[in-house]
């Protein structure tokens, strides 16, 4: 067959349709002896290559891989699979590239490569022409790997679902065709197909609120979707789903990996999936299992179109779409792993190798292999893939898994790595949101804050500080803990100690989070002191053992009033810290309504209800705590977006100018007595109550008040402003900051939901809640409604009785104070009286129903019968100072300037 000159991109790997109805195919293999393009057709269809191909027939004792060397184009029939394979001998290598032009090509064509060369595993060379390999640049993938000897380049067998054999043994002669996935060609030459796309939102970092979700898990159990759309790209693009996200108020949707994936061998041996998707099979192809069944049946192009439509729908609704991507390793694992693509094409150039044992792979990822980003062609491959997703699919940004592995030169991390410069300097990618996970498992792998401009980074220090301050320190009493005012204030202000590294790099570079896909959900942080990963099948040995989580007295769910209230207060404290801190907040999907994974902190292999978001709370005919939390989070996000103070790129505590640090005039700090902290206060681990004032010359000043001790506390607020409470974490249990010496009580029952009065009645989310509530079983709904109404009446009665008792206690205390002043009695009497009042309140609470308990306040946190000291430390019932406010125990509050 004649081989005409290549038509396009002769220096770039890929599959390129040409004007003559054929295609140019280019693949990289720097050390191979010969490469073939393999095209797979069904025997039901006539071949497109009848005039060009020589038909091969089986010859005794002559392997087909020897036969294919004789002809430029040959064809063989594999009857047991009912397919025809046509093999085109490619030309090369030319600077490491192999080329061929085929006379006919079509969208949906299935193909792969066979590669021949040396077999020397101890030197890292593993060429095997019996293995059909994916195109690294394939835009579609069809099929999946079977756990069989055909998947491995070395001789092995599979016994009892376990792979048995030596990776350094003989070469396998089992043909992998039919046992491995195939590449699928997609014709995307139409330059106008994206002309109708909406403009990308291009939300500034300073206004960004990220929402991390799993495409399947978010809607797998969504009651508003028809069955065929649940767990799909189309389900995420559904108007009701989009309306929910808009109601929440986030700006940027960060998707767990949606590039084609494959489970690790050890998971396949245990017949478990890789649910999260951090084991990439194809870097240009979307994961087909997240598409609707109809799209999967129509093929790879329909799957890709469904992804494009999802991105378009989110863009039209005003959201950015950010992809989590995994370029640090491939799905092939260590040398014992399968040969799917890169190992068979050019293992030496693709993967990092141990310096003293070239036959073994360097592994800084914990996944068996690490891509060699010192190789220019590996860098080029990653950039090409990212540009494809940004340009063709419309993605607005990328989060790089184990980013440190992408920036190692000669094994050591450097912020000056060529790959990082390639991202920065690219005209398309350099203008997108680029986020690094700033660690890996290699030497000195923890590098938070060291990636430089323009990269943002996940801030694990923020995560740990917030958890420790509001969970483990509170569990140990809340008097003295591991986290003091200095550390907490630094995280609230954007972590300048980590991110003030370059001129122009600001607080927005800090991706603040408390929970993410990897670890406990926010609710489980307050329910479980220990991980519960038994369902993963690894004897609970997987997942982190250091979570800074607590259970507040009982492991798992409970109806205990005090525990439930403390948990909800702790959750709201963490969410409040997240959304009121400078930096870029990231929330885990489901945390806004209390989603739980039953204590599993490593649900990577749980394609099951353990991982799916649980929407059953939508069926409740009355307002539940789930809805209350959802409303509170939505309110917090709206408050953050409404305040210009948060729309700043720089640091408030200190700015970087040519390496010099200077204080900011935009922030002030106060102790409860209204004074400015001294240096000793900053490092006093017992100083857990303070206020942070953010100043804005043209807008509204705000005050963030932290009360990290177990009793209500008075604060003397700055007198230059009148203040009003905008939000408080204690709202979850019916309390707000109060002017004077008492916290203010809220009436939680009987309130309409946010969605029924702040969202237009014609919106999808409004009708969603009503439809779900009305759709509950009639009898059950009536029973629930009657029970809840009875509970509300009981709560009202109990609150009236409690109010009367508190008034009696206050009068008794006044009388006792007068007696004490005259007689000089010991102050312990007052402590005893307060403890008795607290005990009585606790006794009343323990007799309440679970519905009543859900809305109760823990007695130790805010017993109003205990008079709080004023700013000078003396007990008083005098007319309150207008600048003195009392803040609930263990709470974070946002105060706004009035007028």
UniProtKB/TrEMBL annotation:
<feature type="compositionally biased region" description="Basic and acidic residues">
    <location>
        <begin position="799"/>
        <end position="810"/>
    </location>
</feature>
<dbReference type="InterPro" id="IPR013780">
    <property type="entry name" value="Glyco_hydro_b"/>
</dbReference>
<feature type="compositionally biased region" description="Low complexity">
    <location>
        <begin position="536"/>
        <end position="551"/>
    </location>
</feature>
<dbReference type="InterPro" id="IPR013783">
    <property type="entry name" value="Ig-like_fold"/>
</dbReference>
<feature type="compositionally biased region" description="Low complexity">
    <location>
        <begin position="811"/>
        <end position="821"/>
    </location>
</feature>
<dbReference type="GO" id="GO:0005980">
    <property type="term" value="P:glycogen catabolic process"/>
</dbReference>
<feature type="region of interest" description="Disordered">
    <location>
        <begin position="533"/>
        <end position="554"/>
    </location>
</feature>
<feature type="domain" description="Glycosyl hydrolase family 13 catalytic">
    <location>
        <begin position="212"/>
        <end position="640"/>
    </location>
</feature>
<feature type="region of interest" description="Disordered">
    <location>
        <begin position="843"/>
        <end position="880"/>
    </location>
</feature>
<dbReference type="InterPro" id="IPR017853">
    <property type="entry name" value="GH"/>
</dbReference>
<comment type="similarity">
    <text>Belongs to the glycosyl hydrolase 13 family.</text>
</comment>
<dbReference type="InterPro" id="IPR044505">
    <property type="entry name" value="GlgX_Isoamylase_N_E_set"/>
</dbReference>
<dbReference type="InterPro" id="IPR006047">
    <property type="entry name" value="GH13_cat_dom"/>
</dbReference>
<protein>
    <submittedName>
        <fullName>Glycogen debranching protein GlgX</fullName>
    </submittedName>
</protein>
<dbReference type="InterPro" id="IPR011837">
    <property type="entry name" value="Glycogen_debranch_GlgX"/>
</dbReference>
<feature type="compositionally biased region" description="Low complexity">
    <location>
        <begin position="846"/>
        <end position="877"/>
    </location>
</feature>
<dbReference type="InterPro" id="IPR014756">
    <property type="entry name" value="Ig_E-set"/>
</dbReference>
<feature type="region of interest" description="Disordered">
    <location>
        <begin position="799"/>
        <end position="828"/>
    </location>
</feature>
<dbReference type="GO" id="GO:0004135">
    <property type="term" value="F:amylo-alpha-1,6-glucosidase activity"/>
</dbReference>
């Amino acid at each position: 067959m004649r081989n005409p000159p290549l038509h396009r991109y002769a220096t770039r790997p890929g599959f390129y349709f040409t004007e003559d109805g054929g295609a140019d195919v280019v693949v990289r293999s720097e050390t191979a002896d010969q490469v073939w393009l393999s095209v797979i057709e069904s025997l039901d269809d006539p071949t497109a290559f009848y005039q060009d191909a020589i038909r091969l027939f089986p010859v005794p004792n002559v392997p087909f891989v020897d036969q294919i060397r004789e002809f430029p184009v040959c064809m063989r029939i594999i009857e047991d699979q009912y397919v025809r394979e046509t093999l085109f001998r490619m030309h090369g290598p030319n600077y490491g590239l192999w080329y061929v032009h085929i006379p006919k090509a079509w969208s949906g064509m299935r193909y792969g490569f066979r590669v021949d060369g040396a077999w020397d595993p101890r030197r890292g060379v593993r060429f095997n022409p019996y293995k059909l390999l994916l195109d690294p640049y394939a835009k579609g993938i069809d099929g999946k790997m079977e756990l069989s000897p055909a998947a491995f380049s070395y001789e092995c067998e599979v016994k009892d679902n376990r792979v048995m054999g030596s990776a350094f043994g003989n070469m396998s002669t089992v043909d992998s065709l039919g046992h491995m996935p195939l590449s699928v060609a997609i014709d995307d030459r139409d330059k106008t197909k994206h002309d109708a796309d909406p403009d990308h939102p291009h939300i500034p970092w300073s206004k960004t609120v990220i929402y991390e979700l799993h495409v399947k898990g978010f809607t797998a159990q969504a009651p508003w979707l028809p069955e065929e759309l649940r767990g799909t790209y189309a389900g995420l693009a559904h108007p009701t789903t989009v309306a929910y996200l808009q109601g929440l108020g986030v700006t940027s949707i960060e998707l767990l990996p949606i590039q084609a994936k494959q489970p690790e061998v050890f998971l396949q041996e245990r017949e478990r999936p890789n649910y999260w998707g951090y084991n990439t099979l194809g870097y240009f192809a979307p994961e087909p299992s997240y598409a609707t069944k109809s799209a999967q049946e129509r093929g790879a192009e329909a799957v890709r179109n469904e992804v494009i439509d999802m991105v378009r729908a989110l863009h039209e609704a005003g959201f950015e779409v950010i992809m989590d991507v995994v370029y640090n390793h491939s799905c092939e694992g260590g040398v014992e792993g399968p040969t799917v693509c890169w190992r068979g094409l050019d293992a030496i150039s693709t993967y990092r190798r141990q310096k003293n044992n070239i036959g073994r792979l360097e592994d800084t990822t914990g996944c068996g292999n690490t891509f060699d980003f010192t190789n220019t062609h590996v860098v080029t491959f990653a950039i090409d893939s990212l540009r494809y997703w940004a340009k063709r699919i419309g993605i607005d940004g990328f989060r790089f898994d184990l980013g440190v592995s992408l920036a190692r030169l000669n094994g050591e991390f450097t912020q000056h790595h060529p790959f990082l410069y390639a991202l920065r300097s690219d005209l398309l990618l350099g203008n997108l949101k680029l986020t690094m996970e700033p660690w890996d498992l290699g030497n000195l792998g923890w590098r938070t804050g060291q990636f430089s401009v323009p990269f943002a980074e996940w801030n694990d220090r923020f995560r740990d500080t917030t958890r420790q301050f509001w969970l483990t320190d509170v569990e140990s009493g809340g008097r003295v803990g591991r986290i003091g005012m200095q550390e907490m204030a630094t995280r609230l202000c954007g972590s300048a100690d980590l991110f003030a590294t370059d001129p122009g790099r600001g607080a927005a570079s800090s991706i603040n989070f408390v929970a993410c896909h990897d670890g406990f959900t926010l609710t489980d942080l307050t329910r479980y002191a220990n991980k519960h990963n038994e369902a993963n099948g690894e004897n609970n040995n997987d997942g982190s053992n250091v979570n800074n989580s607590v259970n507040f007295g009982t492991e798992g769910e409970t109806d205990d009033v005090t525990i439930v209230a403390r948990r909800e207060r702790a959750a709201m404290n963490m969410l409040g810290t997240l959304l009121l801190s400078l930096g870029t907040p990231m929330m885990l999907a489901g945390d806004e309504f209390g989603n739980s994974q039953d204590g599993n902190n490593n649900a990577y292999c749980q394609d099951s209800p353990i991982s799916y978001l649980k929407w059953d709370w939508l069926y409740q005919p009355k307002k539940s705590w789930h809805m209350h939390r959802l409303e509170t989070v939505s309110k917090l996000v709206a408050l953050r977006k409404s305040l210009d103070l948060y729309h700043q790129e720089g640091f408030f505590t200190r700015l970087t100018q040519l390496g010099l640090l200077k204080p900011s005039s935009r922030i002030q700090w106060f102790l409860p007595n209204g004074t400015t902290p001294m240096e000793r206060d900053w490092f006093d681990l017992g100083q857990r109550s303070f206020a942070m004032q953010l100043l804005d010359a043209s807008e509204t000043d705000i005050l963030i008040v932290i009360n990290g001790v177990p009793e209500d506390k008075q604060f003397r607020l700055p007198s230059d402003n009148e203040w009003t409470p905008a939000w408080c974490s204690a709202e979850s249990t019916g309390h707000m900051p109060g002017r004077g010496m008492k916290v203010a009580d809220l009436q939680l029952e009987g309130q309409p939901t946010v969605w029924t009065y702040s969202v237009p009645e014609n919106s999808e989310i409004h009708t969603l809640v009503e439809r779900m509530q009305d759709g509950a079983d009639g009898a059950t709904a009536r029973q629930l409604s009657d029970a809840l109404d009875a509970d509300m009446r009981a709560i009202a009665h109990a609150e009236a009785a409690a109010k009367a008792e508190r008034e009696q206690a206050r009068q008794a205390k006044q009388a006792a104070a007068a007696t004490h002043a005259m007689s000089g009695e010991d102050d312990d009497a007052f402590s005893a009286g307060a403890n008795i009042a607290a005990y009585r309140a606790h006794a009343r609470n323990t007799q309440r129903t679970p519905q009543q308990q859900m809305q109760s306040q823990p007695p130790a946190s805010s017993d109003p019968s205990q008079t709080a000291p004023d700013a000078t430390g003396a007990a008083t019932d005098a007319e309150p100072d207008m600048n003195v406010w009392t803040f609930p125990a263990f709470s974070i509050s946002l105060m706004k300037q009035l007028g």
